[in-house]
């Protein structure tokens, strides 16, 4: 079964993973900093509240609660998220592939890992669509489909990211167990 990182030499994957992991953490920190002004009574989760609004009146209430300065932070936050979605999707997907390769003996776990690596990339793509919808709202669009689109993209993005992280944790534990087994 083919995975999305066939083009990266197996010997280079570990180094690329750790570089991307560090960059992901740096951008995650920047997003956290730019997201602080977005936490309001109407948006207790900051940008995540906006992502999950789901309806135009809720999105408008969140936007009104932010004011002009916070809206600038929201735009910066969404811009940074375009870099972040590239980094986290590849980092999670590559990490999953590396773990899947280590537990190839367990065919179901291996195939599951390959599928999840593709879903991690799909999560990044959904995040890009979500950001586009949120930026349109931030710029004043009153299209009622945009918050719905953003919400569903966010839900599936979060689902695929969670699947990848769970696979990394449990797959990593399984790979450690298999490594200890006598050959």
Overall tally of domains: 1
Number of extended strands: 0
Mean pLDDT score: 96
Shape: elongated
Head-to-tail CA distance between termini? 25 Å
Q: Mind summarizing the main beta sheet?
A: none
Helix percentage range: over 70%
Beta-strand content bin: under 5%
Oligomer: single chain
Give the helix/strand class. mainly alpha
The low-confidence runs, each spanning 5 or more residues with pLDDT under 50, are: none
Query: So how many helices?
Result: 5
- The Rg value, from CA coordinates, equals 19 Å
Order of helices and strands: HHHHH
How would you characterize the overall build of this protein?
- This protein is mainly α.
- It has one domain (10-180).
- It has helices spanning 10-35, 47-51, 56-102, 107-138, 145-180.
- Helix 3 (56-102) packs antiparallel against helix 4 and helix 3 (56-102) runs parallel beside helix 5.
- The longest helix is centred in the middle third of the chain and has 47 residues, at 56-102.
- The two termini are 25 Å apart.
Quick summary:
The chain is mainly alpha-helical and 183 residues long. The protein is built from five helices and no strands.
Secondary-structure blueprint:
Layout: H1 10-35, H2 47-51, H3 56-102, H4 107-138, H5 145-180
List keywords for this structure.
single chain; 183 residues; mainly alpha; 5 helices; 80% helix; 0% strand; elongated
